[in-house]
Amino acid sequence: MMVRAVFLTLLLALPVQAQVPAEQPAGQPAAADSGQKFDEAKQISDSEKLQRATSYLSDMKQTLGHVLRLLKDAREEKDVIKINCINEKLTTIKGLIRISEQADMTLQEAVAKGERDTAAHEFHKISISHQKIKVLRSEAEQCVGELAFAVGKTTVEVEVDKDQVPEEDPTEVDLPETPIVRPPAASPYQ
After folding, report:
1. Separation between Cα atoms, residue 68 and residue 83, nearest integer Å
2. Closest CA to 144 of 76, 59, 60, 58
3. Residue 164 CA to chain centroid, in angstroms?
4. Residue-wise pLDDT tens digits, 55-108
5. Residue 40 · residue 34 · CB < 8 Å
6. CA distance 151 to 56
């Protein structure tokens, strides 16, 4: 139950870049597309689901390694902005992989028991996670490239127009000398 709540939270929190297919009318809701993909997952054979799920998990773990390398590079550069941006994507990727691994175990159990609906549901969760991780990978790469132009040392050169600025500094004021008066000792003992 807890895993489903986390999965739903991650699904709702991530931005989805949906494209409307040419055959889908513009007024048709996107939920119908999701239902269509779930129906397609039901049509795939169980052995194909297991094979694709293994491939998807492998791809997700490779993406995790790639994003971890991006984080390492950002840490070596000591760029806090990049580190925070990549960390955000990395945390979500780790959560999606954890959900996918658990869904893979449930998928294997469902296939062994012959529960086609459960198998289709778990495969659908894995494929959604796979798609979201692809998006997160590109976002993590944007974190590195997007802010690269702002990094570096800044130099400032000041030119003074002698006609506009006087030779002497107007903020420098001569103060009168004041004598230093020390108070008497508070105790006769030293």
Report:
1. 11
2. 76
3. 52
4. 999 999 999 999 999 999 999 988 899 999 999 999 999 999 999 999 999 999
5. no
6. 36
For the range 36-43, what are the long-range contacts, defined as Cβ-Cβ under 8 Å and sequence gap of 24 or more?
Answer: 37/124, 37/127, 38/120, 38/121, 38/124, 41/120, 41/123, 41/124, 41/127, 42/116, 42/117, 42/120
State the helix-helix crossing angle for 116-146 and 80-113, rounded to 10 degrees: 170
The model's pLDDT over 110-152, given as tens digits with 9 standing for 90+, comes to: 999 999 889 999 999 999 999 999 999 999 999 887 544 545 5
Task: Report the alpha-carbon distance of residue 154 to residue 142 in Å, rounded.
Answer: 23
Name the nearest CA neighbour of 34 among 101, 121, 95: 121
Which bin fits 114, alpha (ψ -120 to 50), beta or left (φ > 0)?
left
Rounded CA-CA distance 167/180 in Å is 33
